[in-house]
UniProtKB/TrEMBL annotation:
Cross-referenced InterPro entries: COX15/CtaA_fam, COX15/CtaA_HemeA_synthase
Protein name: Cytochrome oxidase assembly protein
One GO biological process term: heme A biosynthetic process
Pathway per the UniProt entry: Porphyrin-containing compound metabolism
Organism annotation: Salinigranum rubrum
Membrane topology label: Multi-pass membrane protein
GO MF, one annotated term: metal ion binding
Pfam families documented for this protein: COX15-CtaA (PF02628)
């Protein structure tokens, strides 16, 4: 089949595009929910406005979200099939997780805009939370899949890559804070919510990459603080979905989670520099000889 494939289309590029598509889909899903457009189609899922095509702007937003979700689903399936054509077991496992969870995500999405659309209070927080958890798991599996596809082309040592990923994460934290509900610098509009999720998911992906790259090195113990930073970032993502009444207490909790992420990642960067220092001194000594 390779002779029928364009030379520029490689598995790693396909997997990276799929991961980026899912990130975009999650941003679009947040925007759709924040605008209340999911309720525009209400109990008509998978139809909108009693037909295949939307008739209003809210129903178009929901319809477009479903269209992108369908396309993303095929790309996720294609990524898994391509992964199973290879020999790397971990790549196959990660891609398979994304595919296995896909029907569950579709089902929860259907419940979100049908059964929950009939509730007096609108979307149920439990269903929205489940929708986010499954989506984030699929996204994480695709991030790992993409990282695995690039494993044979990295030129930097693993520790350098991990440190760079942590620095990227540290740089994304203040942007995520500025777009979040912690401060009112930017009104927490549907567009701001989508942007917040885009930045925060990029932050999450950087932490996943750092955790993956420190794994096979002597600094593997740093997976613990990175795992804690991932958990704190997940908490930030949950709070960004308006699953609770955003009181002063929850604002303080949200702030604390951001601070915790910064401190944990900062500690990892410091530890990685200390880990790499002896190697650099030895390298200078050898070059001096």
């Amino acid at each position: 089949m390779s002779q029928y494939r364009p030379s520029w289309l490689s598995f790693r590029r396909f997997a990276a595009f799929t991961t980026g598509l899912v990130l975009t889909l999650m941003m679009l899903g947040v925007y759709t929910a924040a605008t209340g457009s999911g309720l525009a189609c209400s109990a008509q899922w998978p139809l909108c406005d009693n037909g295949l095509l939307p008739q209003t702007i809210p129903s178009f937003i929901e319809w477009f979200h479903r269209l992108v979700a369908m396309v993303a689903g095929f790309f996720i399936l294609g990524t898994a099939l391509w992964a199973f054509a290879g020999d790397d077991r971990r790549t196959k496992t990660a891609a398979a997780i994304a595919v296995v969870l896909l029907p569950l995500q579709v089902s929860i999405g259907a419940v979100t805009v049908t059964l929950n659309g009939l509730l007096p209070g609108g979307y149920a927080p439990s269903t929205q939370g489940a929708h986010l958890v499954v989506a984030l798991t699929i996204f994480t599996a695709l991030v790992v899949t993409t990282l695995r596809t690039y494993s044979d082309v990295w030129t930097r040592p693993a520790l350098d890559r991990a440190r760079l990923a942590c620095l990227v994460a540290l740089g994304l934290v203040p942007v995520s804070v500025a777009l979040s509900r912690v401060f009112t610098l930017v009104p927490y509009s549907p567009a701001a919510q989508a942007a917040f999720y885009g930045v925060s998911l990029a932050l999450f992906a950087a932490l996943v990459a750092a955790a993956a790259w420190v794994g096979p090195t002597p600094a593997s113990r740093l997976r613990l603080p990175l795992g804690a930073a991932l958990a704190a970032t997940f908490g930030v993502l949950l709070l960004g979905r308006d699953l609770v009444f955003y009181t002063v207490t929850w604002r303080a909790t949200n702030t604390a989670l951001f601070v915790l992420v910064s401190l944990l990642v900062g500690v990892v960067v410091w530890a990685l520099r200390r880990q790499d220092a002896p190697v650099r001194r030895e390298s200078r000594g050898v070059s001096g000889d």
